[in-house]
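Structure catalogue
Derive tokens from sequence
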Amino acid sequence: MSRQEKNSLRGILVSSAMRRQVNRLSKDTSISNSINTLIKYKVNGLLTTDEKGVPVGVLSKTDIMGAYYADLPLDSPLEYIMSSPPLFCQSDDPLEKALEQMRDSGVYRLYVLGLKGNDVAGALAYPDIVGMLYQYCCDCEYSHFRQQKDEVGEYIRRLRVRDSMTRDIKSVTEDDSLVHAMEELSIYRMGAILVKDSAGRPAGVMSKTDLILAYKHGVDPQDPVKSVMSSPVQTCGADDLLEDAIRTTIYTDVHRLFVKENSNDDLVGVFSLTDAARNRSGSCQACISSRITIQTN
């Protein structure tokens, strides 16, 4: 008989983690107006609807970046670039099941159907799962946030950033074109990429948010990356507690941190909200060993 893996999501429903605000736009809305909505509400995607308000697709920053790459006019309707159909889960589905669906489908979010009918009741994305895990860790009796001294440290190994980070760092140079940066982001399915200077040192980060804003403001796609990149590079240590890294991403509204060894400035990986959600084990071995009881209401 196979041993069932234990983790901190077991027993939790989608309704406990989903975001109840759902941003929607008509498929006839212009790309320009959709960028305004994404930036205003600080979201990475939104639901597109037909003339009757029925969901017909999803618009993401990746879709808009593709329109920028293809040199589509900003007044083009979302119908030209949206992904269809939207993917759904149920509010009473196990959160583990929804996470597996997201992973298997290669998507960043699902839309959540309510218990009554086919009305969209919310949205579930990786940051929503991370936020729930963070609150869970904060409330846990084993959390280092709740303890002045690590009284259970000899019994529980706290997870570090290196336990969840992605070790492969992709990069472009600050003199590369925006087109090249878009190609790299598309090939490796990333939300942002490290930018290095002529000496190979970290100089900034190029994200899809930076690119869609460049599109909105009419920046030539052949312009160099350094013209619109964000800097400085936000970092954390490989041996930093996972709880602390999650807290940093949540409170600074940064979706990823580049990881360096504490002894030097060499970057050794990238830690993102997606990594934290896919880890599914909270921030210490207490979750994995099921010594914490998960309350579901």
In short: The chain has two domains: 14-125, 161-279.
